[in-house]
Amino acid sequence: MELSKVTTLMKATALELAILTGHLVLYPSGIAAERLSPAGPAGPTATITPGGRPVVLLHGFVDNRSVFVMLRRALTRHGRDCVESLNYSPLTCDLRSAAELLGRRVEEIRARTGHAEVDIVGHSLGGLIARYYVQRLGGDARVRTLVMLGTPHSGTTVAPLADAHPLVRQMRPGSAVLRELAGAAPGCRTRFVSFWSDLDQVMVPVETARLDHPDLLVHNVRVSGIGHLALPVHPTVAAGVLEALDAGGPVAPGARGAAQGGEQGAQGGEPGAASVA
After folding, report:
1. What is the pLDDT of residues 160-195, one digit of tens each?
2. Count of beta carbons in the 10 Å neighbourhood of residue 29
3. 122 burial class (0-12, 13-18, 19+ CB within 10 angstroms)?
4. Which of 10, 76, 103, 215 has the most CB atoms at less than 10 Å from its CB?
5. What is the percent of the chain with per-residue pLDDT over 90, rounded to a whole number?
6. Residue 170: which residues within 8 A CB-CB, separation 6 or more?
7. Which of 207, 221, 242 is nearest to 53 (CA)?
8. Which helix (H) or strand (E) holds 58?
9. Single pTM value for the model
10. Which pLDDT value is given to residue 38?
């Protein structure tokens, strides 16, 4: 391995350890469900809250909402007034159940804020849960843009001893859930943006975090120089998430095929990788 690659890997590993340490400190603060945004009039006459579409943040496996502290700050500074995190139970054993819970939260947010649609940002397993909601539970009528950070779209083979947990088995290549998601999804209206890192040690192989599906409008964003834990924390990725959410608009006729498989840097612009090392 070239010296430059070794140096980059060492930097990324050191950053992962630092983020893990900080996250362990913050973890207790994210165990309890957060206080919801102020409620407005419910029902068809609800007043639409300012600040753009609500954003729902969905954490990964054995995690909680505390993972999004930095990203949440970036979103609120950028004018998103309604940003809410959903904690699903650590006892959850079925991805589908978590997707149903997400659907109920989305309906509650829509009724409370008056917005017809929301945006979702999911990290790791959270992205897969949100994708199931959009593709299999009719969530594409409710979700304008789904941003996924390090999500195992094709399954990951990391940590084989973890297969004792049902959720881990659902994230393995060839699982029933992943076969469902690989099936046809004609007319899906949601925009998908999938960030994947070439140094992600949890996604094995790293390309599993790319989303390739013929029926979906997808932008894959390659990020270089950081690992799995850094994806919801790093400012470069946060800038890419903000850009992806701000770009969320109606699907232009003929855009689906052109966008499928597209690759761009984490800050947009020309295709290619964005180095954050």
Report:
1. 989 999 999 999 999 999 999 999 999 999 999 999
2. 12
3. buried
4. 103
5. 67
6. 94, 95, 176, 177, 178
7. 242
8. strand 55-58
9. 0.86
10. 57
